């Protein structure tokens, strides 16, 4: 009898609380998966930061030192110091190869290149917004003949891989006399980024109710005012997504920059950093220091817009 | 002062005709309701008044001025939308003030108007909230306020009550009617709810498939529908429509459908010409147009078997078998009927509606 009662109680109360073991296993599983993902994503970044403070001897030691024994700022100094201390073929032999210090001859180019990159990326972001926002508003809210095909046409320009465009772009840029000029990069990056910008914004604007547009226009707004007063404030997450996308695309672009730039007058960060690896000798610690500096602007941008990033990216991708 | 006149206005979307050669004059200070099922062109008509849709053909006049391509912000109209269309990023105060700011009114004038409207609509305590913090009814009031403060010549409303629950809808109906009286401006109101139209309108325009079916006062539309569509669209539960033939008798006629018959007096068929005899006709009888059998002085009589009894609180509806059809009639609660019983009901002679089933037009009204 008592056994029957006991088993009966057990059955009715079985799901009253979450089974303890299952709860722990679940939490543990999630923790391990998150930890592995974090290690995978952050490991290289941490190593880059750590090794940028090490000298060449320490960076190549086995086992690697995650925390430098003798932290040094030499790599960073080489980037910001005066050009007169730059190492050339003649002077490099005076440097002790064991302690490292193979500072490449183009080290002093990094900061000017960052300036170039910022100008290009900033201009591309600005022009993307100036062109993309009105275009997306028109495509999303004004019903005209050929609207859908316009959207597909804009997107279809991105079906062609960039590498296939390099030669036509090059001929075009040369004809315009824009080789080794920042404008060449701005123009070509716009051709690459604007279609995506329009696509992301069209999706976002389409999800905003048409009636808001109608209400604004009845309330006394012209089309442009409806866009400025009603849609732009609501579209901030998608504008952030577009800004980040255009900035990062321009900041990281390598192939076209390699073709169109020749001197530090127009070279961007990826070109200059790549040149460090093709110098007489390679200093990994120095390259990592350059990498640390090169990621600072995108990281700052991401921190500033952190609040909007996730909602902006998903809003661009998923309707409604 | 705002008279609106449609002169053969057509609106096409690609190959689809949304509004077909509409001729309509909306009088100054009138409360006009555009009524019809979804897709009948009523919202398109409203949007054309607002300037939100271009005309494909014809002319639209405000008073004597043609406004075909006048942009919305130049027209002196305000609009209330079904979804309220409040600006989510603005406070209630800024939502209401937005139209005035765009028209560059002085700030103290704006503040005064917003306060006045908010007090009238009893939303003064909500002015600093955001739309998402409001209930549906409160949002509706903000949308009304936003239109009110503009003091427009024409007030446009696109199904403004559809998103509210039933009880609130009745209250807001009364308030909108009151608003029309005090504002003294032209109201154009779109709805698919016939009860709303009958309550609010000075005149109703019934539309279907882009064509006007009938224009008239609520009484005209309800009492003398011009065709089968108008007859069946207004009234809840809907009018009973029966197809049958008229067979003359010495003292009147029988309306027969196979074995079943309604006995009609001479007076009831007097309005039908001789042609009607022997042809198939459609007879319309509204559920409320019957009398209890006690009042047997009436001379149009329907006899039938009760198939269902549906009490609705104040009254009850009887479902009565008529040939293969079931007709519904409203009778007092006092009558106790059971399914299966035979009842005799007297029809209101003056309120029978006759239609030609082929053209769907009313035969005599």
Quick structural overview:
The complex is a heterodimer of chains A (320) and B (365). With 320 residues, chain A is mainly α.
Walkthrough of the structure:
The complex is a heterodimer of chains A (320) and B (365). Chain A is built from 14 helices and no strands. By secondary structure, chain A is mostly helical. Chain A has a domain at 109-317: MetI-like fold (Orthogonal Bundle), CATH 1.10.3720. In chain A, α4 crosses α14 (284-317), α9 (210-218) packs across α10 (223-234) and α11 runs antiparallel to α14 (284-317). Chain A is flat. Chain B folds into 2 domains: 4-233, Rossmann fold (3-Layer(aba) Sandwich), CATH 3.40.50; 240-364, Beta Barrel (OB fold (Dihydrolipoamide Acetyltransferase, E2P)), CATH 2.40.50.140. Chain B is 24% helix and 35% strand. In chain B, the strands form 3 sheets. In chain B, strands 11, 12, 13, 14, 15, 16, 17, 18, 19, 20 and 21 form an 11-stranded antiparallel sheet that branches. In chain B, strands 6-7-8-3-9-10 form a 6-stranded mixed sheet, with helices on both faces. In chain B, a hairpin with a 4-residue loop joins β16 and β17 (316-322). In chain B, α2 (92-102) packs across α3 and α2 (92-102) packs parallel to α4. The chains are: A mainly alpha (320), B alpha+beta (365). The interface between A and B is medium-sized, with 17 and 25 residues.
Structural class of chain B: alpha+beta
Shape category of chain B: elongated
Through-space gap between termini of chain A: 59 Å
Q: What is the strand content of chain B?
A: 35-45%
CATH class of the domain at 109-317 in chain A: Mainly Alpha
Give the topology.
The complex is a heterodimer of chains A (320) and B (365).
Chain A: H1 2-13, H2 20-52, H3 56-59, H4 74-80, H5 110-141, H6 147-156, H7 162-175, H8 182-207, H9 210-218, H10 223-234, H11 236-252, H12 255-260, H13 269-276, H14 284-317
Chain B: E1 4-13, E2 16-26, E3 31-35, H1 42-50, E4 57-62, E5 65-66, E6 77-80, H2 92-102, H3 107-120, H4 136-148, E7 154-158, H5 166-183, E8 186-191, H6 194-200, E9 203-208, E10 211-216, H7 218-223, H8 228-233, E11 240-249, E12 252-257, E13 260-265, H9 266-270, E14 280-285, E15 290-291, E16 300-311, E17 316-322, E18 325-331, E19 342-347, E20 353-355, E21 362-364
Parallel strand pairs in B: 3-8, 3-9, 6-7, 7-8
Antiparallel strand pairs in B: 1-2, 1-4, 4-5, 9-10, 11-12, 11-14, 12-13, 13-16, 14-20, 15-19, 16-17, 16-19, 17-18, 20-21
Helix pairs in contact in B: 2-3, 2-4
């Amino acid at each position: 009898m008592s056994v029957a009662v006991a088993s009966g109680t057990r059955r009715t109360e079985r799901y009253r609380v979450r089974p303890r073991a299952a709860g722990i296993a679940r939490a543990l599983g999630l923790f391990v998966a998150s930890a592995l993902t974090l290690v995978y994503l952050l490991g290289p970044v941490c190593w880059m930061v750590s090794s940028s403070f090490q000298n060449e001897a320490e960076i190549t030691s086995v086992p690697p030192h995650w925390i430098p024994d003798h932290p040094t700022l030499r790599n960073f100094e080489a980037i910001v110091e005066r050009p007169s201390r730059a190492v050339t073929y003649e002077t490099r032999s005076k440097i002790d190869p064991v302690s490292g210090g193979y500072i490449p001859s183009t080290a002093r180019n990094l900061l000017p290149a960052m300036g170039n990159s910022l100008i290009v990326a900033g201009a591309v972001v600005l022009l993307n917004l100036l062109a993309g926002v009105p275009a997306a508003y028109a495509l999303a809210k004004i019903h005209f003949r050929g609207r859908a095909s316009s959207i597909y046409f804009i997107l279809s320009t991105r079906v062609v891989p960039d590498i296939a465009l390099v030669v036509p772009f090059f001929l075009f840029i040369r004809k315009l006399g824009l080789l080794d000029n920042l404008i060449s990069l701005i123009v070509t990056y716009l051709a690459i980024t604007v279609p995506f910008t329009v696509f992301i914004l069209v999706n976002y604007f389409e999800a905003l109710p048409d009636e808001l547009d109608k209400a604004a226009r009845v309330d006394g707004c012209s089309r442009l005012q409806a866009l400025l007063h009603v849609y732009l404030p609501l579209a901030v997450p998608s504008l952030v997504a577009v800004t980040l996308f255009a900035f990062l695309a321009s900041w990281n672009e390598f192939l076209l920059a390699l073709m169109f730039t020749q001197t530090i007058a127009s070279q961007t960060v990826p070109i200059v950093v790549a040149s460090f690896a093709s110098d007489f000798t390679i200093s990994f610690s120095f390259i990592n220091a350059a990498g640390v500096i090169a990621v600072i602007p995108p990281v700052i941008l991401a921190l500033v817009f952190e609040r909007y990033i996730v909602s902006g990216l998903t809003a661009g991708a998923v309707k409604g | 002062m705002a008279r609106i006149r449609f002169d053969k206005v057509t609106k096409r979307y690609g190959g689809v005709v949304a509004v077909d050669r509409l001729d309509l004059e909306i009088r100054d200070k009138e409360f006009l309701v555009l009524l019809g099922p979804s897709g009948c062109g009523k919202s398109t008509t409203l949007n054309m008044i607002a300037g939100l849709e271009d005309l494909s053909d014809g002319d639209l006049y405000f008073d004597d001025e043609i406004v075909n391509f006048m942009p919305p912000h130049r027209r002196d109209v305000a609009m209330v939308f079904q979804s309220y269309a409040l600006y989510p990023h603005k406070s209630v105060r800024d939502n209401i003030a937005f139209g005035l700011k765009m028209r560059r009114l002085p700030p103290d004038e704006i503040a005064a108007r917003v306060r006045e409207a908010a007090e009238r609509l009893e939303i003064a305590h909500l002015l600093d909230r955001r739309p998402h913090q409001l209930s549906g009814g409160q949002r509706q009031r903000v949308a009304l306020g936003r239109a009110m403060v503009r003091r427009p010549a024409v007030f446009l409303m696109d199904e403004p009550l559809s998103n509210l629950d039933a009880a609130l809808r009745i209250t807001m109906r009364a308030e909108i009617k009151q608003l029309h009286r005090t504002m003294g401006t032209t109201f154009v109101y779109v709805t698919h709810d016939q009860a709303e139209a009958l309550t609010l309108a000075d005149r109703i325009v019934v539309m279907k498939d882009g064509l006007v079916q009938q224009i008239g006062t609520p009484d005209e539309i309800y009492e003398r529908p011009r065709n089968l569509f108008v007859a069946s669209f207004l009234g809840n539960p809907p009018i009973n429509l029966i197809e049958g033939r008229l067979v003359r008798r010495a003292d009147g006629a029988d309306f027969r459908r196979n074995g079943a018959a309604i006995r009609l007096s001479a007076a009831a068929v007097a309005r039908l010409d001789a042609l009607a005899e022997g042809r198939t006709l459609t007879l319309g009888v509204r559920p409320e147009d019957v009398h209890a059998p006690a009042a047997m002085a009436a001379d149009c009589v329907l006899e039938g078997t009760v198939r269902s009894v549906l009490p609705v609180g104040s009254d009850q509806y009887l479902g009565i078998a008529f040939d293969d059809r079931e007709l519904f009639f409203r009778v007092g609660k006092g009558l106790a009927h059971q399914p299966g019983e035979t009842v005799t009901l007297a029809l209101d002679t003056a309120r029978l509606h006759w239609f030609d089933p082929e053209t769907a037009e009313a035969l005599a009204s």
